[in-house]
Amino acid sequence: MSVEFTVAIPTYNGAARLPLMLERLRSQINTESFSWEILIVDNNSTDNTAQVVKEYQTDWPTNLPLKYFFEAQQGAAFARQLAVRSAEGEWIAFIDDDNLPATDWLAEAYAFNRDHPQVGAYSGQIHGQYEIEPPKNFKEIQAFLAIREHGPIPHRFNPEALNLPPAASLMVRKQAWLESVPSRQCLTGKLPGLLVQGDDYEPLLYIHKQGWEIWYAPEIHTYHQIPRQRLERSYLLTLARGCGLATCHLLMINAAPWQRPTVLVKTLLGNIRRIVLQLITYRGQLKTELIPAVELAFFWGGLMSPFFYLKRQFWSS
């Protein structure tokens, strides 16, 4: 019987997080009508992630394969590429090791792609579960932590506006990935000393470029575990700036060569305008108010993104 879904879990030092994730996957309901497997990609962990997986494999249901792979190149993009190469499923359900699925997560994902055969990728609602209460008006910046709640109506995302789902919970048609995504991405994921984000958007933009649709499926639910340190001001400012730094590179993926100078100029001018407006609107508040400070950090990253893009182009030529 062919495998229809591969659940792929990229993890780095996930020994403490994987047990709860694996228990949630073992408890999935209404999966009798399709076959699936679980694939864990250890992205160069230094803890006992491998041992944790090995212990689960010794007492795991025989009808649900639980596989372990090791990716030595640091970065979530490398882990996802290995998952795609190793997956036996027609669909790959990526899920982060700290993003716990609802009990019907996979069943709802299966139902959605049966009803939408034209999709190349889709994602559902990602809710935040916080260790401590988030700051006031946090919903305005929660997308930086992969929290996505777009309401009850299914709809297509708008990749041209970089309106896309994160890889924290993402279903991708393996065929679409293999036909569209380069074997090595430019944006590889969070690394020590490398702040640029965008590694989850880059593959989706290539998939969109090949004509596949990307959808929002509201019946699919996961719950992102947010520890207190991810709500600290310094972490959020760094994260937002890193997201901004990826802007120009992401916009270039679907731009024709003749459009690229315009993209550079519009990215520069657009972010200068946003920065000026933010400074005028929130003058005197940016040192004390978290939300506008995080937004400003994103705009500063966006302003620097053309220079980051040009630097990468220079070094790759």
Textual characterization of the structure:
The protein is of the alpha/beta class and 317 residues long. It folds into 2 domains: 5-231, Spore Coat Polysaccharide Biosynthesis Protein SpsA, Chain A (Alpha-Beta Complex); 235-316. The protein is built from 10 helices and 9 strands. Strands 1, 2, 3, 4, 5, 6, 7, 8 and 9 form a 9-stranded mixed β-sheet that branches. α1 links the parallel β1 (5-11) and β2 (36-42). The longest helix has 27 residues, at 290-316.
List the helices and strands and how they pair.
Elements: E1 5-11, H1 18-26, E2 36-42, H2 49-57, E3 66-70, H3 76-86, E4 91-95, E5 99-101, H4 105-115, E6 119-130, E7 155-156, E8 169-173, H5 174-180, H6 201-209, E9 213-226, H7 233-245, H8 247-253, H9 260-281, H10 290-316
Parallel strand pairs: 1-2, 1-4, 2-3, 6-9
Antiparallel strand pairs: 4-8, 5-9, 6-8, 7-9
Helix pairs in contact: 5-6, 7-10, 8-9, 9-10
In a nutshell, what does this entry contain?
By secondary structure, the protein is α/β, with parallel strands linked by helices.
CATH superfamily of the largest domain: Spore Coat Polysaccharide Biosynthesis Protein SpsA, Chain A
What is the general shape? globular
Q: Measure the end-to-end span.
A: 46 Å
The CATH class of the largest domain turns out to be: Alpha Beta
Quantity of strands, as a count: 9
Task: Return the CATH topology of the largest domain.
Answer: Spore Coat Polysaccharide Biosynthesis Protein SpsA, Chain A
Biggest sheet overview: 9 strands, mixed
Q: Low-confidence runs (pLDDT<50, min 5 residues)?
A: none
* H/E element sequence: EHEHEHEEHEEEHHEHHHH
Tally the helices: what do you get? Answer: 10
Looking at the overall shape, the CATH architecture of the largest domain is Alpha-Beta Complex
Strand content: 15-25%
Radius of gyration, Cα only, in angstroms?
A: 20 Å
Q: Indicate the structural class.
A: alpha/beta
**Count of domains:** 2
Average residue pLDDT: 94
Please give the share of residues in helix: 25-40%
